[in-house]
Structures are given as structure tokens and as C-alpha cells.
């Protein structure tokens, strides 16, 4: 309940936005590195429109659903889905990868699903057109040309907007299924590249946490697309890399924090939503033990995917082993 209450507060704040005011040449994603000073005051709506749509759907709050729809339609009316002129001026060959295109593809796709009841057929088409012509082309360009993203977190993260965006198009345009199948194959290929034989990743527990927090909703969406449970959809590599994360836990701080090694700061924890997802994906009882220990610590922040993945009360009623116990694991590949 506390997680959802936090999301409700975010959604209520989102109701104060006036997204139409930020319609312009470049979609709002304020960043001092790329944007003009005059654009830094614009509000990025990619995350908040998802929260508004989700809370509005659960609460049957029409005002929130309409605001989510307004944000998606306003985003669709921006000329470019990149941050600034640096990516599109005549003769430019530089582009800041598809970070911005990815978040707006995902957000607008989820609004189509969760708040679509408040959008007219024409409005839906405007949003789909933007995903098709302003978001996906840049993402596809990165996957076809930038080989390095297939061996690090970026390709996996960009798959979020790519796959969720394509899933939103298939009901209206079934021929996009072939692109989805390619994107799914790419995702698993990149997971295999990213995760080493011992289950570890060279980027460290911090980036692992971020990368798989972004990826887990994709596996959930794809499992539903294929009419499978998350456990049935899981690959050996996904389970193996989860065990790597568990081996990175410290026995300090109640056993819920990660060891401060590589890119990981002290007191860092695995994203609770990711832990909840692994409770469903893996049969390893340590995930349930970790989730129960984190729940007792009371440090759950608002996260809509945590709510989607959260174990049921019946599942959590089963006894779990104490999380506090030393772990000994040799990671020969990642050191």
C-alpha cells in the first residue's frame, strides 16, 4: 500500500503539468549537455505519464487517465524525439544514442494500453505514428549500426522502448510482429553477451541492478505475449545472473545491501521490484528471503513495476530462510 500511495502522490503532482506548453521542435528531456538553456525548464513527461496511466487505471481516475493521454499526444506533436539540434542539424552525423527515443516510445506505448480508453481513434493514430516515425527509426539505427551496444547495458536498456513500442503496434499493425521477433532475439543475444559464464557482468553490481531493472518488464511483457509465466519464459542465463547478484550481497546491514565493489556504492540494494520479479522467475528460495528482509526494513520506494511483480500474500506467507548467512562463490570470469 505504501508503494502505491507514493505513486498516487506522484500522479497527483503530474496533474499540475500543462504538457501542451512544451510542444516544440524537440521533445522535452532537459539535459545541460545537449539542450539550450531556454529548454531546461521544460518537463520530461516520459516517466510521469506512465505513472498517471497506471494509477488512473487502478483507481478508475479519469482525470489522471486524461492527463496521461494529453502528455502522450503532446509528445507525439513534437517534431523530433531527440534532445536538441545537435542530433538533427543539416550535415550532422552525431547522435546521443537513443536514450530519449527509448523512454518516450515506452511511455507512449504504455499510455496507449493503460489509458487508451480516453483517447480517440485519431489520437491513438497520432501516437502510433510518432512511435513509428520519430522513436523506432533512431532505435533501430542504433541496433543496426552501433555494434558496441550489444555488449553492454545500452542495448538491453534500449530494448525497452523498442519492444514495448512494437508490442503496442501489433494489435493495429500485425506485420510489426516480425520486427518484434527480431528485437526479442537481439535482446536474448545481448543478455548472452553481457552475462559471463559464471553469471557475472563486468560492469559490476550497480549497472547490473539498473540493467535488469529495465529489462525485467520486457521479459514479463514477452512472457505474456507468448502465453507463458515468467518462470516458464526464463532462460538459464537469466537465472544464473540472478544467482550472481545474490552472491554479491553483504552480511552487513541486515543482509540486504550489496558489497561495495566495482561500480557499487556502500549501502546499495538490489531494486526491490527486481527482487520481486526474481521471486516469480526463479525457484531459488533466497530471493523470497531477501524480499521478506527488505520488506521488514521498510525501504520500498514508489515503483509501478514493483506492484506488478510483487509476490502475493499467499506466496509470502510461506516460511523463508534467514537472509543473513555468508556466501562463498568463485567468479572466475568476472574476477
What's a quick, concise take on this entry?
The protein has helices at 2-14, 46-59, 62-76, 99-114, 121-145, 153-169, 177-194, 204-225, 230-233, 236-247, 272-281, 285-297, 304-309, 313-317. By secondary structure, the protein is mainly alpha-helical.
Key features of this structure:
335 residues, mainly alpha
Q: Topology, please?
A:
Elements: H1 2-14, H2 46-59, H3 62-76, H4 99-114, H5 121-145, H6 153-169, H7 177-194, H8 204-225, H9 230-233, H10 236-247, H11 272-281, H12 285-297, H13 304-309, H14 313-317
Order of helices and strands: HHHHHHHHHHHHHH
Radius of gyration: 20 Å
Spans of at least 5 consecutive residues with low confidence: none
Largest sheet: none
* Rounded mean pLDDT score: 93
Helical content class:
55-70%
Strand content: under 5%
How many helical elements?
14
The coarse silhouette is globular
Distance between the termini: 40 Å
- DSSP strand tally: 0
Q: Label the structural class.
A: mainly alpha
Description:
The protein has 335 residues and is mainly α. Helix content is 57%, strand content 0%. It has helices spanning 2-14, 46-59, 62-76, 99-114, 121-145, 153-169, 177-194, 204-225, 230-233, 236-247, 272-281, 285-297, 304-309, 313-317. Helix 4 packs parallel to helix 6 (153-169). It is globular, with a radius of gyration of 20 Å. The two termini are 40 Å apart.
